[in-house]
Structure formats: C-alpha cells, structure tokens
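User: quick one, sequence for these tokens?
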C-alpha cells in the first residue's frame, strides 16, 4: 500500500454503532432493480471464468452471478449468516466484519476472482481491504467492484455520501485500487449508460493482479463505456 490522501473523517458515518447489531436482523432485499441485476450478471459472465474459485465479498442472500459459466466454488464473506444461508450461489459462508478486522481470513493466492457488489459505501478502511483482496487473489486474478446509488445512508461513509454522480463514485473506486497497490489494468465501466429516471444505474470498477511478481510500475487505468 502507498500513502493516500484520505483522512479518517472522510470515513465517518452517521451511525457509528456496532455493525454487528445493525446487520443482526436479516434484510432479504435486492438493492438494484431487475435490469441492473441482469446487466451485472452479464458482466460477471464475461469476467468470471468457468471453474474459478470466487470470493463474494460483503456477501448477502444474492450474488447476481449468471447461470453460465459456473465457478468451481463461491465463498461468501459477510455479516449475516441467515442471509448467506439463503444464497443459492454460495458453497460456503464466512461471517466476518471487514470494518472490525481488515485482514481477510484466507491464505495468499486462493481465489481467481473477487466480487464486491453495491457495498463499497460501507467500508471504513477500503484501501486496506483492497490490499487484502490483492493478497488472496492468484496472479492475474480479477477484482470487480459494482456500484449503484442506493444505500443505507446512516451506515455509508462520508466520502461516499459526498459523491453525487456515478462518475464520482467510479473515480473514487479507481482511487482505492490505485492506493491499495497490487492491481494493474484498472478500468471503470458504465453498464447502463442510457439509464432513465427512476431506474437504477449500475457501474463497475475492475482490476487484476499482476501475473508473476507483483507489479511495481505505474497503475494502468482507464475509463470506458459499454
């Protein structure tokens, strides 16, 4: 990880009470509409190869994975055991509070892909978590961070609440990748560029770990629309 410009106050939340208490009651709701879910599933079909070992980070009761191709296994890591127990995509679930403990409970290089869907806004130490994701991914592994506009506002961090457009949220995600280190070829993609009023936008920021030795060069980054 490199030094970053984000000060602790940017990750303050309206509700600083224990996250475990907040998530103790299962909330089996989806946070994006059906077309956004379909767009995200289609994107996952492109980037998650069949037979992959996948980490579903901050997992819930739905992972929005496509029917094909199928991963070899999907490990969910989240706050709610009841929610993850109802997730048909998960082969195993791990209850873990990323805001309490940034280190992920996995060995180095054990996943081919990691997914973080519409939950970036809740991380109070996102750069540390991104750095950990790079650690648990295999060389050439993919980390895809999906973004939209809905959230539990009292648990969303200030820097996210201050982002008023999808482009600002995508740029924030790209900054997290940059300062975490360990990733190359970071791209942001708008999966619904023609979204209409009342519909949910969906975008993704995606990077991959360097093949072979960890890359120490300049981060490759870009912006594209699908």
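Assistant:
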């Amino acid at each position: 990880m490199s030094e970053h410009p984000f000060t602790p106050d940017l990750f303050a939340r309206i509700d600083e009470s224990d996250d475990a208490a907040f998530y103790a009651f299962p909330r089996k709701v989806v946070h994006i509409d059906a077309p956004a879910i379909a767009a995200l599933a289609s994107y996952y079909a492109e980037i998650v190869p069949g037979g992959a070992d996948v980490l579903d980070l901050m997992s819930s009761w739905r992972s929005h994975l496509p029917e094909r191709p199928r991963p070899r296994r999907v490990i969910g890591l989240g706050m709610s055991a009841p929610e993850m127990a109802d997730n048909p995509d998960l082969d195993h679930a791990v209850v873990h509070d990323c805001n309490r403990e940034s280190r992920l409970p996995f060995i180095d290089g054990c996943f081919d892909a990691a997914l973080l869907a519409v939950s970036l806004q809740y991380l109070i130490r996102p750069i540390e978590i991104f750095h950990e994701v790079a650690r648990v991914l295999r060389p050439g592994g993919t980390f895809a961070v999906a973004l939209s506009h809905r959230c539990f506002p009292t648990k969303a961090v200030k820097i996210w609440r201050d982002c008023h457009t999808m482009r600002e949220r995508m740029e924030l995600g790209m900054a997290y990748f940059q300062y975490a280190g360990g990733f190359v070829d970071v791209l942001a993609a708008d999966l619904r560029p023609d979204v209409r009023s009342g519909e949910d936008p969906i975008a993704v920021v995606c990077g991959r770990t360097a093949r072979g030795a960890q890359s120490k060069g300049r981060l490759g980054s870009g912006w594209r629309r699908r």
